[in-house]
Amino acid sequence: MSTTDTTDTTDPTGTPGTTEQDLGAAGAQLSTAPREESAEALLGGPRLGVIGWIRWFWRQLTSMRVALILLFLLSLGAIPGSLIPQNSANEMKVQAFKDAHETLTPIYEKLQLFDVYSSVWFSAIYILLFVSLIGCIVPRTWQFVGQLRGRPPGAPKRLTRLPAYTTWRSEAEPEQVREAALKLLKGRRFRAHTAGDAVAAEKGYLREAGNLIFHVSLIVMLVAFAWGQLLKSEGGRLIVEGDGFSNTITSYDDFKSGSWFGLEDLQPFSFKLDKFTGTYEKNGPQRGTPRTFEAAVTYSEPGSPDKKGVIRVNQPLKVAGSKVYLISHGYAPVVTVRDGRGKVVMSEPVPLLPIDNNITSTGAIKVMDGYRDKNGKKEQLGFQAFFVPTFAGAGKGTMMSQFPAADFPVMALTGYHGDLRVDSGLPQNVYQLDTSKMKQFSVAGGTGKAQRLLPGETMKLPNGAGSVTFEKEIREWASFQISEQPGNGLALTGAIAAIAGLAGSLFIQRRRIWVRAVRGADGVTVVEMAGLGRSESARLPEELAELAATLHAQAPAAPEAPSDTFSDSAVPKTAVPKTAVPDSPDPETAVPDPSPTTAEAAAEPAQAGEADK
Predict the structure, then answer these.
(1) Which of 40, 417, 446, 605 places its Cα 20 to 30 Å from the Cα of 437?
(2) Distance of alpha carbon 256 from alpha carbon 389, whole angstroms
């Protein structure tokens, strides 16, 4: 237990002592009695408090170190978005990945790796980087504005200590030298003014401007990315030659949009695929390589006449603020199906999906309504189709295409009848056939199950069930992506500005020049020139030498005095300008005020937050 002894004490001489109570607070500090330590003392110092912690966190967030860490984390976060299939890009690939990796799927889902760019952790990094850049740019901008409004600082007392220095003696008056130096520096686009007995000049402010432009451009690109993700729309549509598209939600085969995009934001326009043209290399090692892919279309907007256009790979059609890209193409053979009574129940092109570079294609032909068997009973038909644009010939291997062009088209059909299950309420792929409730036809030709057809040939269905004709007309289809991303132009502008700002911050050097002209003890004007770079610059001595040579022509060096009039120490070693830093200045050419200084005295005081991010 801590106690305080209040007993009177007496020194060795017998004089009564002073108690600790009499000393008060001072006595308490001098007391050796044990006392309880406060919580602050046990923790090693005073606590920061809520405001202190907020300030500390803000300073850390807006520091260059944290900004670089956030940029690094953002780069790392983009890696899984590039390697792992994303729901925003292709849901079918995501599902295939999940089916193939059952162990990893639950982990990836918890980490939101299938939706990286909309995940919580990626958004947190993105927002923190955004705040960090703003917190850095705002104070630096005010500092830069203050620098632009201010004047270059006056000359240091001892210019000989600066990295680049030269001096000579001149018969010109000091005022004339300073006036000539001021005019010279302003003519070289320096910000210059006369300060006392010297001219102070500075150049290279665009370096800091480039730095700010670079950081602002990063914010612009972040805003453009967020704007594009929130307001974007993207959809796909497969169109056969002769068919068209209208920009409504029901016209899309698939459609995705940002969180802030509404269906009313779809701009009205339409286009029709007139013809698709594809050419291929026919000979040599690149046989089959595409040479021409282009879709001729007719498009229109409300209130304007129809226009013709051509869409090529990487050359989209721009209409109503949207871009229409050509993605892929294939063949759509025209097929006619008749029932047992010879009635046509279907006659239309059937798009088939390519499975290799030679456009070997597969698909399904579905007759859902209008068909009746020979007894008049309603039934549904389905045919599995296998199409090759250039057939190698029977007995020459597997039925695969030998060339992408339709030089020798052949189609194999496998027929089924029964229930297609299109009315079951479950979504169904239009290019696949559900045969779980169907029976297969047996055909007389071919393998007994499937039959190969040339253009114009007909496959007879058994028991008077009807027929299927492969018409001579073979159309082509093209797949288009219709996208609207409002932030692309802003992102491009930000990227160009960032490159320009970075180039300015790297190649523009900020430097200061001082010219001092004073009358020496012998009445001759002593001219001193010195330069200091705000960063390492190999050109500073060269620039100073060039300026000194120009000024020397206007204020030439004074002739050397006779030896019987002046001592050798009073005459400069050379009359032409030189760039050097002497170990000890010549007493005759030194500045009258000999107080020491450093090169840092020529620079402005460093301000907090000036470090480049």
Answers:
(1) 446
(2) 33
